[in-house]
Design brief:
Helix content is about 45%, strand content about 0%. With about 250 residues, it is mostly helical. The chain has two domains: about 1-65 and about 125-245, no CATH class; about 75-110, no CATH class. A two-stranded antiparallel ribbon has the order 1-2. Helix 1 packs across helix 9 (about 220-245). The longest helix has 24 residues, at about 160-180.
């Protein structure tokens, strides 16, 4: 539902999908529980309580004022009082001539007056998001889920923390796959194979080589571990960006 929804007709989402804004919210929520991250609460003052509610409950009361832009063209009836809304201007449009000529005049007027149409709301996705980030939402979801598991095991030593986070992620995916086969869940993007390599190595007792076909297919478990560490590093960078009011930012 959320991924396909673009707005209500009067207000629209610049990204034409809810998902990047949902990920912003969810990363912020996780970052708030990370003792190594400090949220700039002044930036997020208008977000209200983002720590307690689910995204769907929070979204309905905030999407227009925080993320959307007003795009609806309205007709003023005869005798209507012209307001002074900061996000609109009032023009008279002749009902004669060619529509292309009329639209060209409107465009020329906006250009002459230096009017730049807003392309993003108050909280804008960082520059270039449409060329990179929107095409990698599956990866962003992976980073978010892995980060949540990594935070869950904060009491473990660094190596064990990575192992447990990776195990949780693979077990989640295996459980989801089982539900897909049972017809009770939608399909998700398969997890990268190196997660299965690393967790397969751990499940085999941590022997260095030759323990399973999984290992021979992808190389040794330490290489797989390095790729998981990289994913965690990216997830933490996204959380640090969010803490400053930037999403996704450079990661």
């Amino acid at each position: 539902m959320f991924e396909r929804w673009k707005g209500d007709g009067e207000y629209v989402l610049p990204a034409a999908t809810v998902e990047p804004y949902r990920l912003w919210f969810e990363f912020l929520k996780l970052a708030a529980s990370d003792p190594e991250v400090t949220i700039d609460e002044t930036v997020y003052a208008d977000w209200g309580d983002y720590r307690s509610p689910t995204f769907s409950r929070w979204w309905s009361g905030h999407w227009r004022s925080l993320f959307a832009v007003r795009s609806k063209v309205e007709r003023l009836d005869a005798g209507a009082v012209v307001g002074s809304e900061p996000d609109s201007i009032t023009l008279t449009i002749p009902l004669s001539g060619h529509s292309d000529e009329v639209l060209a005049q409107v465009a020329a007027y906006l250009d002459r007056e230096g009017v730049n149409l807003k392309r993003q709301g108050r909280f804008a996705l960082s520059l270039g998001y449409e060329h990179g980030f929107l095409k990698q939402l599956d990866k962003a979801r992976r980073y978010h889920r892995l980060y949540s598991y990594w935070l869950r095991h904060a009491d473990a030593d660094p190596r064990k923390r990575i192992e447990r986070a990776a195990r949780d992620y693979v077990r989640w995916y295996e459980g989801w796959e089982a539900k897909i086969k049972a017809g009770s869940r939608r399909r998700v993007t398969p997890i990268p194979y190196f997660y299965k390599v690393f967790v397969g190595y751990l499940d085999a007792g941590g022997r260095k080589s030759g323990t399973s076909q999984v290992l021979s297919d992808m190389g040794n478990a330490e290489n797989a571990r390095r790729q998981i560490v990289r994913d965690i590093r990216i997830a933490r960078k996204l959380a640090a960006n969010v803490a400053m009011g930037v999403f996704p930012g450079t990661y």
